[in-house]
Amino acid sequence: MELSFEKFLLVIHTKEGIDGLMKKWRLFSVLTLMALVLSGCGEPYLSTLRPAGEVAKKQFDMLILSSIVMLFVITVVAIIYITVLIRFRRKKGDENKIPKQVEGSHKLEVIWTVIPVLLVLLLSVPTVWYTFDFGNLSGMERVNENGEKENLVINVRANQYWWEFEYPDLGIVTSQDLVVPTGEKVYFNLFASDVKHAFWIPAIGGKMDTNTDNINKFYLEFDPEKSNEAGNIFYGKCAELCGPSHAYMDFKVKAISKEEFNEWVSAMQNYEEPELNDVALRGQQLFQELNCINCHATTPANSTPADARLAPNLSDFGNRTTIAGILPMTKEDLKKWIKEPGKVKPGNKMYAEGSFSEEELDALAEYLMSLKVGE
Ligand code: CUA
Fold first, then answer.
1. Of 91, 252, 311, 318, which one's alpha carbon is 20 to 30 angstroms from that of 59?
2. For the chain, how many structural domains are there in total?
3. Domain for residue 214, yes or no?
């Protein structure tokens, strides 16, 4: 149906038009209701409406509080508006009657000054409180009697279009999959190597910008029970438009118990080269000959030369469940990614597009999928 203002005027000025519109409005209201109801059905691992950590919970509470305040204001204003419309309409026979004038009424002035002030206070006190609470980084540098850091600190480096996670106190570098323990505060140093991005794990809290010229810091907490319910996986996103593949700049969070986390740390720290079959060995040879190794590191150690951190660290690539953060982990998808990375993630910096034979692609895929840690 074509909608123009003239048509709209015509429609609302005829009885048939109004009836037709009312029929459609019933449909509209059903659709609106559905949209409202369905928006509550977010995936447990990707929704701000299903908070799974202390920070997200407090942010969610603020969302609810401000929504209630807004609803209250809208309701009161709407009721007054409708009441005035009906009660003070000019009626037949009353054309010359002037209602009681209340301009300058003390009582009314006080009421409509005090109520908004109370509402602003109701909103601002918890906002300021939580702002300082979320900015409290006192635990970031705290050390125990042995001089060891008490809390986990992770350096997040955002790149077009992938994420690097460095555990400076543990000597581990990894990419795309962030691994964290549940039930404790995890502190983050956030920065970017090229343009501005933003680090966001919707179900856990945030988001915060990653900049090139300063380091932003915050902490998050992963609730053990909620993490279990979500299958110990949460999804993370880049939340700042950063280029053509911004929407594909996803990462994964593995939120596991402290024991499992410690196992993971020791597997990463005591990294052993995986055993490679003949095809994978051929892949490894290609990986080096084609200079992939200049940008991609294949060991998780912190000793990795800086120039091998131009692209994601691949030491635990075979443990991941996605390729490039977005494709499912299958050999076919991996070959597609290696062959034409620009088609999967436009504007990304991986090159050597389309110059592989099928045999080379098979070998490279086999090699990359054999890169596993702790299995
Ligand atoms: Cu990085 Cu958007």
1. 252
2. 2
3. yes
Surface-to-core class of residue 105, CB atoms within 10 Å of its CB (0-12 exposed, 13-18 middle, 19+ buried): exposed
Q: Is 164 in the pocket of ligand 1 (CB under 6 A)?
A: no
Domain end call among 209, 224, 257? 257
Q: For the range 259-266, what are the long-range contacts, defined as Cβ-Cβ under 8 Å and sequence gap of 24 or more? A: 260/181, 261/179, 261/180, 261/181, 263/374, 264/179, 264/374, 265/167, 265/170, 265/172
- For residue 296, give its domain range: 278-370
C-alpha of residue 228 to centroid of ligand 1, in Å: 28
- The minimum-distance atom of ligand 1 relative to the CA of 192 is 1
Residues 219, 308, single domain; the answer is: no
152: Cα separation from own chain's centroid = 21
Answer whether 203 contacts ligand 1 (Cβ < 6 A): no
Task: For residue 195, give the ligand 1 atom closest to its CA.
Answer: 1
Hey, is 157 helix, strand or coil? strand
> pTM for the whole thing?
0.79
Pairing of β 152-159 and β 185-192: parallel
Render pLDDT for 9-53 as a digit per residue (tens, 0 to 9): 555 556 566 566 666 667 777 777 777 666 555 566 778 888 989
Antiparallel, parallel or unpaired: β 162-167 and 172-175:
antiparallel
Output the CA 247–ligand 1 centroid distance in Å. Answer: 7
If asked whether residues 325 and 362 sit together in one domain, one would say: yes
In a domain, 56, yes or no: no
Give the model confidence (pLDDT) of 159-190 as tens digits: 989 999 999 888 888 889 999 999 999 999 99
Domain harbouring 236, CATH code: 2.60.40.420
Closest CA to 335 of 255, 344, 22, 117: 344
Distant-in-sequence, close-in-space partners of 373: CB < 8 Å, separation ≥ 6: 267, 268, 271, 300, 315, 316, 319
Q: From 265, 272, 277, select the one nearest 298 (Cα to Cα).
A: 272
Residue 124 vs residue 341, higher pLDDT = 124
